[in-house]
Design goal:
The structure is a homodimer. By secondary structure, the first copy, chain A, is mainly α. Chain A contains nine helices and two strands; from the N terminus they run H-E-H-E-H-H-H-H-H-H-H. In chain A, helix 2 (17-28) links the parallel strand 1 and strand 2. Helices cover 56% and strands 4% of the residues of chain A. Chain A binds chain B through residues 42-50, 52-53, 56-57, 68-69, 71-73, 75-76, 78-80, 82-84, 86-88, 93, 96, 104, 114-116, 118-119, and chain B through 57-60, 67, 69, 71-77, 79-80, 83-84, 95-96, 98-99, 102-103, 105-107, 109-115, 120, 123, 131, 139, 142.
Chain lengths: 190, 217
């Protein structure tokens, strides 16, 4: 009983796109939690498992459409970011790239965003899939933040850019933003 | 009506672990389909053709055409199959056990496989083998520990789940890259149990339409 009543604890790194996705989900669902800052999580990409668990145990507001085909589109977009882009430019991989780090990260993101831009042209409404915020959007905004950090030219991706802008206007995305975390360094604070 | 009646089409490469995951799911759920092979190496990689790119902008396998849509990303496909063909199920009923299944699947699908896929290995030149072994070793060390808490006969308890669909193909990759499986007894035991199941055998890389003669079972 007491385990169920205890506040959830999130181990989070302010700048980790993986942590940010989960912070957005918790904010959207109005789940209060204790945040324990960790400096660089060994990230194995398990945040979608966490977000799916939150979706099943706190169904409102929902992060997946009701229609199975639209749900498949949401998952496809989320998985593309979480498996197809982010792991290739995470910290442990970049360490291996030495001087080529920046170029490598830019190539991964560019290549991933080219595909994503095409897909979004078919699926997007106000957000990634139709007009409701979904798990795809929770993955998109943090990945765009990564792109900006690696100075990727966002010119070729108008749909990604438009959606990201709309997302950053939402309270849950603002409150969970890397620039506003307990462990955000002073020089990077909003 | 005719779109719904048409057989699903799976774009697959015999040796792609991501494709194998979906082949297992289709076999377990008894869904018959047509397989269109996409050779990731020939012709500079058939996934890069304009024709395939129009079908799947991500230029990867697998992709599944089903019910009038095309889905890519193996877990997105598997989740769709789970929702539209619920039996036999690939997720436990309890949300916490479901989270364990997803965590294991995500760890393999995001934390291990992408780091040793073809396009990354191309970049590694001579260091290819060493890089792949390191990715897999590091990922399997974590996975072995997780499985010691969650595993029964299979990855989570005693029912085959999405986690198992991801495990067997990743172990096949480990073997291809000559990773020493000694330190991972739980992974090894589960993999052995899985390979005895019909769905895992029939979908195996050694038994596909595009399996080269020298690698056929």
């Amino acid at each position: 009983m007491s385990a169920a009543a205890a506040k959830p604890i999130l181990y989070s790194y302010f700048r980790s796109s993986c942590s940010w996705r989960v912070r957005i989900a918790l904010a959207l669902k109005g789940i209060s939690y204790d945040l324990v800052p960790v400096n660089l999580i060994k990230d194995g990409g398990q945040q979608l498992a966490i977000i799916n668990y939150l979706e099943e145990t706190h169904p409102n507001p929902r992060l997946l459409p009701q229609d199975p085909k639209k749900r498949a589109q949401v998952r496809m977009i989320a998985d593309h970011i979480v498996s197809g882009i982010q792991p290739l430019q995470n910290l442990s991989v970049l360490k291996q790239m030495g001087e080529k780090k920046m170029e490598w990260a830019q190539n991964c993101i560019t290549s991933g965003f080219q595909a994503l831009e095409q897909i979004l042209q078919h699926t997007a409404g106000r957000y990634c899939v139709g007009d409701e915020v979904s798990m795809a959007d929770l993955c998109l905004a943090p990945q765009v933040a990564n792109a900006e950090r690696f100075k990727v030219d966002m010119g070729p991706y108008p749909t990604i850019t438009r959606i990201n802008k709309a997302l950053l206007e939402l309270e849950a995305f603002k409150i969970s933003h890397p620039s506003r975390q307990p462990d955000t360094p002073a020089e990077l604070r909003a």
